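Can anyone check this?
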Amino acid sequence: MTGRRHLLTVGVLLILIGGCADQARRTGSESEASRVALSGAPAKLDFLSELHADCTFMGYVTVRTLVPPSHGTLTFEEGSDFTSFLMNNQRFDCNKQKSPGTLVKYQSDPGYIGSDSAKIEIFYPDASLDTITYRLKVGVTPEQQGAKDVLIARATLSGSTQKLDFQYAANPDCSSLGKINVRVVKSPSHGTLKVEEGEDYTDFAKGNPRYDCNKKKLPGSLVYYQPEGGIAGRDSAQVEAAYPTGAVKSISYDIYVR
């Protein structure tokens, strides 16, 4: 982000599980943001915070609803959370600590699955304002949330156990964002798949505020594959990962046993 002001968003997986759509805004701008939500559960859509370059707080924004969601409720809460400034922003180091700000939250009606939208107006401490329209996908499966399948290729030796994957979600200070629930959707045809809670090293990209977290082990969910004895060739499996943000992702494994 190159502008003084920023819009702090929580992406999927980005997190999840480690990224956001942080971008410069101009005063009076209108923007759209795509979000996913777990049906019936609270989902954080945004964290709005105004910081000086030395990470001190400039003051709370004022948020009001212009267009309410049709299938849920929108709430605004003053609190604290992690910011997500990009590496080329002078506030990048502020990401490693929680700052005051306003949380924008959405909760769908019980059992609702489908699309929803809402529009808010944000007043800043300097009297400028912006508007954001949220486009929401609400569901309990990756398909309902509009998520694309992730394909991971792995190789293993016949008769040995191989780690296929490590799913994790971390805050910029390297603390865990919460438990990730991984369930097996499709078992392998020529072996067994096992999911365990444990610790391993993360793989955040350079430029992500969590990049330094790669230097130590963090908690998460480990996926292991054990081929049947004596087999060689191709196998496959599929899991579904549910993250603390409410996002759900489908992960397919293409396994080569040699």
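Reply from J.R.: I decoded it. The chain has a mean pLDDT of 89.
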